[in-house]
Amino acid sequence: MVSGVSDPGRLLPVLARYKGKVAATLLLSAVASLLALGPWVILAVLVGAVEAGTLTGSLAMILSGAAAGIVLLRFAALAGGSALAHLVAFDMLRDLRFALLGRLEVAPMARVIGEGRGALVKIIRDDVERLERLVAHAIPDLVAALVPGLFSVVLLAVLDWRFALIAVAPLVGAAILVRVFLLTPANTALAEQLGALQERVSARLIEFVRGQPVLRMIGSPWGRTAESAAPDRLIGEVHAFEWAWARKGLCPHGLSQVLLGGTTFLAVGLGLWAVQEGGATLRDYVLLICLAPALVTPLEKVQHTLHEIMEMGPGIRRIAEVLGWAGPPYEEPLRRAVACAHPVRFEAVSCSIDGHPVLKGLSFTLPAEGLTAIVGASGAGKTTVVRILARLLDPDGGRVRVADADLADRRPDDWYAFAIFAFQGTFLSRDTVADNLRVARPEASDDDLRRALWAACCLDVIDALPDGLETRLGGDGVTLSGGQSQRLCLARALLRDAPLLVLDEATSHADPVLERALLERLRTYRAGRATVFVTHRLPSAAVADHILVLEAGTLRGQGTHAHLLEACPAYRRLSDARRGAAA
């Protein structure tokens, strides 16, 4: 979940461009709500005419026609206001999502990855979507509830101050109860805690559903460990939390409803007393008993709307947090400095993940050209090295230098012009093979594509497809195997022709013979440039010009395959383990 200081005011630049349209929607909502009082006012006028003995057939027809016209005008105001409010809301959602995506493009990659894909998707999809309720419904409804209430109180006060007091007294009491006991900072904090707990339940339930095949195979759909039983426990926690929260509001909420329900009885009884005592007419009394109860529903709507806005608060703060993301303040463009090959130096780099040290003062140099392999047992820190190079992770200590500058000082787009990465996982869009490749270099010719595919040992696969480079992938198109997808992604990375290519198990689905053939083609295709690959296969590493041996986050040796077999005990242990596994 996004954390840190967030200022909801960061939404204002995105929303300010619609302030005129928002004002128009609020005006239409106010007009529609005031027109709803029109028939009651006309009824009071009719009663006053009867009381004065001046009601005629023509006057009754005119007033009835006016009431019908008011109803039609209210319908037009409601329809126009609702249409405009939704149009504004949808435009705002679009602009907010564009603004959030723009922040993701410039924020440090480590921060984006660190927040988690699920949390960011929830913000861009769900939190933004909830703002439609705020703009198209909650705020217009709040205005529609408050304006006629204020108008009614003012009108009653003009007619007879006692009528205004009769109508307002229960409402004030109910409002004080709601404000003191329900709309409090403590309840706002409880709403945030409940939201966080519900997110934990959602995440765990997703894991539970995905893990069903394994959980069932071990003998129980819920599993036998505390971790696998966590969905059950968390659901129970949500239930207990919600019930405890509800109990706190039962008495204040119930008492406020009693007060609101007493408005009608007060209006009927005390209003008749005011008429009898003098100073109030039957016309005024009719207005009182019509308008006083009508104040109750708006107040209930205000309570509901304020509660809804309070629930939206955490999502608004999460949106504001992402809108506040920005890249570091780079002082100089560095694209020229990385346009050609340079050695990359790790200088005493340390890194911890979830509090556990993974790299411990790691120092080495990646040559500016040739094949460099990074080997080591699982957990040695190989992938962490690649993640730091890819700017997906920031080191805790030390630094990474290239072209005599700290990697942290480089603009991300400058760095990704210098270094291109291919990982074990793949990403291919539901488009043609050619379009998927040209993501890396839009101006590439078909010959360029075919050369990159040849270097990735994938040209024969693509030529065998129904439409070759124009074959559509995924969906209704062709589905590639895991290894074919990996090699196609590698071809896309090769197409960038960057000075540094880094592969993190990017050929894990290939068999050893194919992987060695691929590395030999890379040596030819990328002559004069640097290629770094992580592998757990020592025969593949043996073709490298330079090998780095990692063990428990430290460098145990470096050199050629033959040199390391003779001089590096850690490398010999890896070799012995491979031969033992093969035997």
UniProtKB/TrEMBL annotation:
InterPro entries: AAA+_ATPase, ABC1_TM_dom, ABC1_TM_sf, ABC_transporter-like_ATP-bd, ABC_transporter-like_CS, P-loop_NTPase, Type_1_exporter. The keyword Lyase does not apply. Residues 344-577 form the ABC transporter domain. Keywords: ATP-binding, Membrane, Nucleotide-binding, Transmembrane, Transmembrane helix. It comes from the Bacteria. It is a multi-pass membrane protein. One of its GO terms (molecular function) is ABC-type transporter activity. GO terms for cellular component: plasma membrane. Its main location: membrane. The chain crosses the membrane at residues 26-50, 62-90, 134-157, 163-182. It holds the Pfam family ABC_membrane. Residues 23-311 form the ABC transmembrane type-1 domain. It is found in: Cell membrane. Signal peptide: none annotated. This is Sulfate-transporting ATPase/ATP-binding cassette, subfamily B. It comes from Rhodospira trueperi.
